Fold these 2 entries.
Entry 1:
Amino acid sequence: MIGNIILTLGLLTAVVGVVMYYLTFKGYNNTLSIARLSFHATVILIIAASAFLLHAILTHQYQYKYVYNYSGSDLQIGLLISTFWAGQEGSFMLWTLFTAIVGLILLDYTSKRGDLEPRVMVIFSLVLSFLLIMLNPLLKSPFNYIWMDQDFINLKSINPAFLSMPALQSFMFNDPQSGSSFIQMGKELYATLTANNIAVNDFIIEGKGLNPLLQNFWMQIHPPILFVGFAMSAVPFSFAFAAILKNEYKDWVKQSLPWVLAGTMVLGAAIMLGGYWAYGVLGWGGYWGWDPVENSSLVPWIIGVASIHTLLVQKKTQDKGGSGRFVKTNLILSILTYILVLYSTFLTRSGILGDASVHSFVDPGMTVYLFLVIFLGLFTLLGIGGIAYRWKYLTENFSFEENVLSRELALFTGAVALIASAIIVFVGTSAPIFGQTVEIKFYNELNLPIAIIIGFLNGFSILLKWKHTEGKDLWKQSRFAILSALILTASFVIIGGLNDVMLIILAYSSSFALFVNGEIAYKIFKGKKSFLGAYVAHIGIAIFFIGVLATGGHSEHKQVDLTKGEKVNVYGHELSFLGYEPFDNGKRYYFNVEVKKGSSVNVIKPVMFVAEFNNSLMREPDILVGLTKDFYIAPVSYSDGTEEGDHNHSVIMKKGETFDYNGTKILFNSFVMPENMESMMSGGGFKIGIDLKVTSNGKTESLQPVMQNTGEGPTYIPAESKSANLRVSIITMTANEGKVELEFSNLDGTESKSHTAQLKEVLTIEASIKPFISLVWIGVIVMALGFIIAAFRRSKESYA
Amino acid sequence: MNNKYIFGGIIIVVFMAIMIFLFTQTNVSYENNFSKVINSEKTIKATGSWVKEKNYTFDKNNNIFSFYMKDDQGNEMRVYYKGMIPNNFESSTSVVVTGKYINGNFQATEILTKCPSKYQDQATQSANS
């Protein structure tokens, strides 16, 4: 109750803030202090609500539906805190919290820069108001009580002391399918409990727990950083809109630049942290799967990066006076960045990607869906409408022409290439809305040429001078890079075995960028260090491209069975399975694998366990990290040698082959062709079978399972042998290749023991080699570093 | 002539053209009616449910996972997947497989399992983006 009251008050003060800031902008004198007071009140209330939610989580107050649904009492403290953002409601709360804190800093920043504050903060308060509407009790409040909707709670979560109460019996029932018992939670049960003086958080003593996929360190840091990035992406929108409000387009550029740089850095780092999570913990084997949920935060990031480049041109061209170039482009890109963040939210939270993404949220219900559409629609209308309203003024005042060999044009072309890439990802990601989806090839093939263009521009734009460059100067400056890149690329081709033409060009353009920026960065490093930002960031992206190229093109993987005590050689590593080892109170298991290469011996520990949470086998990879390559081991399955599994056994056999099933020898002797071939040829009904010679206990008999085609698809007639305790059924048949897939099972229903006498422990793994994946991470870190340096420099320049 | 529009325009036009072409080449549509899946030669994302009564098989030698799937109308088909049994498979209620129907079977290249059960509707599908 208290939580919802705090949030509602927060919404009220936020709306007051919007109105008061608007009045201040309109020229009222005495409203600014009220506006500031309201905004501060909103921030304090949001912080209070967040603290209240965190307290409820830490003290296990399961009367809150959110706390019950996502947390549990056995979680360690770090993971328990991370349940704050494990679900829809909590992650909205976190997003709102960070937006509030960013708003506080923004208020301080804008109040020192002329009349900026009311114009920027009116929009930013509006952003905050919308997030708070999302958190109201009718939509996605994390403070809603568990009895407000009907819910089924497993008896495991209920305090056993109350279970024998007669009043409760009518709320309990069994689910025969799962064999579990549930209690039906709702208003009626709540009334019954209140009548008996039982508090709900005494009654429910355990939560559902946190999804084991999310139980790791990266869950504790990736979502918070992502939401800081989301929160900061509202800033360029506010600055651009502030410029539209005043119809003045000069100062906002330098004022927003440090924010754009910092926000893009944070968002980019968060995205790649997610990539590292996928690689190191979730076991996809890669860092990027082009999943719609991943892509949806990538699109606004790319647009943000594009806007940095065109903002720089505008800032530079302002030196001559006036507003500079690309005024319209910059307004549009800054506004698009936030709209695309909202669009991403819409995609991932509306349930629209339910069938397309591994990790999208489930359908949140019609009200939330509609609200998300309104939120997105209103900000689109506001941003695009504002530009449209000033369009005539913008077209009359800002039109320029660039020289071909100028940095302005190179930066603009770079931005266009980035936008093209964003459009590609956007289209592919949005396709599920129309019941379509694209293959990964779509993204890869389209982004490859863009990456090549970006690589070249990355180098050339830095060599080109503002306004105009002489062709011969360009050659003089770039020949070192052109030749060094040639040597490096040649070494990729000769030593690395790179052979695809497009990839060779990409390797060349990336190494060219690397050398150009490296050379200049080295010169600057001896001089004015605050100017290093752009070069460092560009070196980072070049390293990143080379890393992607090496890893993407040259990863190898294969599945291997590791029998305990036996050594297997995989990609030059000698592997032996040492056995499993329980940890985490016996809930999880390490499957220790010794990896020997030359004189170095390491033990890597992939993890497998059956999660109680969803009754599924969970697998976590482990990696032997190396300088030039990672050796990646993902667990597949484990057999302790005593059972084969609880399912039937299927095998593909060729004519003439013999198979050993539980000591019974089965020979695939011949096909038994249909008696009337005409019927088969004319597409009518026919029977086709196979002849098997089955030998068990010294006796041999013939079995003939049959596939019958009646014209409406095939049916299968199994064959049985009592003496061999065997049933054989055809699964599929490809007579022209002489192959048949058969399924064997025991007649008496006993579990089919392993077909070969296998009493050894076997761990099946997927081993892979990821060359130079470290470059991907190093590239990202270097890039982020460049953004930070640039943000510092631009914040010094931002005073009006 | 305005260089800005020439450079920007060429990039955008070229990529739009390639994109539209590739989109038509690589797009995959969802289908929840298996009789249509069976008669199509295109790659499809088929949505349906796992036929638990028929269990599944895993051929360790060839690393092939197979199971039966049915749609709302009760049409069944057998799905083959080269790879391991996905996490969550046993508790899934709904399965999305990507692939083609060839020689009487669905050859999947990708399996996505969803686990919204009556009693556990939200928790299994939370965000880890």
Entry 2:
Amino acid sequence: MRQPSASARISLSALAWIIGAIVFFPIFWMALTSIKTEAQAISSTPLLFFRPTFANLASMLESGDYLHFAANSIIVSIGSTAAALVLGIPAAYAMAFYPTHRTKNLLLWMLSTKMMPSVGVLVPVYLIFRDVGLLDTRVGLVAIYTLANLPIVVWMLYSFFRDVPHEILEASRMDGATFLQQMVFLLLPLSAPGIASTGLLSIILSWNETFWSINLTSSEAAPLTAFIASFSSPEGLFWARLSAASVLAIAPILMLGWMTQRQLVRGLTFGAVK
Amino acid sequence: MAFGSEAQVGHGGKTGGHGAAQARLMLSPTVIVLLIWMIVPLVLTLWFSFQRYNLLRPAGGFVGFDNYAYLLEGHDLWRSIWNTVLLVGGVLIATITFGTLSAVLLNQPLIGRGILRLLYIAPFFVMPTVGALIWKNLLLNPVTGLFAWFAHLLRVTPIDWFSNVPLLAIGIIVAWQWIPFATLILLTALQSLDQDQMEAAHMDGAGPIARFRYIMLPHLARPISIVVMIETIFLLSVFAEILVTTSGGPGIATTNLPFLVYKTALLRYDIGGASAGGIIAVVLANIVAFFLVRSVATSMER
């Protein structure tokens, strides 16, 4: 494409940076508030320059509270992602390499389970969890997140597996490779980037999931989403503290999201946008 | 391209029955788990919706359509359906409009494009409860929020967002979180746009607006339909943003369907009424999903 003139490029860039600054501002402001004192945080004239204090962040990290909730978030995100991959990889493999006339409908049906609003099944899930003792347990959350993410995981893996040339697997079959050998030595290495980005998306979705975490946990198994929500109560109105907790809650996922943005597009659109 | 061509669909047959049987076996755990997940809670919800069942007064019994009648007669249900529609519709319009504009902007040869891209997509990765609380306390708060300070600078009275325009305030927060998603998808789509075609149009004297209208927009039609589908799935169940900002109020001004069911079930312990609300949510979602899944399926087949 023709390069625009230097002045056009500079003014467009300035516009883009102004909008970018506005979009990013709430996150920046939160980070800034997290290194203020409480008095500075609620100052009626916003402070841009002040002597930063890392006391809030440090006290958050030292308090057992934050670490407890963060551990829950990590365990539940990784656990549910692992479970979804274990279930999803064989299923996606089967549909990608042995498609039948029903495969397309099966895929659409799986996606349609994602259309069912969580709220439609909240009551029975809550009662079942209560009766079998899964309320406020990590196992319970892992199970729910696995089911919630499974359709998306299968779709993503399916779209990645489709790009693996059939001929390679067929040739290895001719050479006498067993099914397991095909999986371990060919399919998994060939689609490793796809599996990795599927896993990352599942971790991001689980980390940020809020409906089930708030409704099915109280203290033992509550992840960071529920912990942050507890700041909405009147006694939680310490804004520097809230900001410190928020920074620590979103930092890992923000980094992960930034690093994997390109793969995520493919995953989020099931490979329809590349 | 998600779906295989006819030739590839026939592939399974060629490799013989052995592989196909194995494939069915590998597929079955996922299908069974999802079937149970879909059917059991839904059947139970349906069952409860015909019961008089309050956790505080468990003795109930079959009441037919009473729960539904009660909901449909009341004002709350209709208002929360309307709020759901407004929220989904408003946020969709905002995200598609601003998402397209920022994607076109980011597709230009800008200074520091890599960093800009990170700034634009960051809100998408922010936990909903964090996003909502930051907006509520640090920005929109009528006394100490940054917007109030701006209002003072301009010598106007600050708006009490969550009292005066609560649904708009929540819509702003949700849109802030979802515009980046549209930007990300549409920007990626724009980058695969055939540059020769743009160049040729330019040579032929098509201005920027004509090029946008006749080349970019048609190219973006499919990614936009995907953005609409995925966002609709998530926007129909917006919950955290409401819980931590307004708790559905003032009155029921920001109660959407998920929040109505949550209130009925976990705050009023009315299992029967909540279940009926849940079934209504499922029916509405299915009406939307019917059209969405179909349009996506056809657009993916191409």
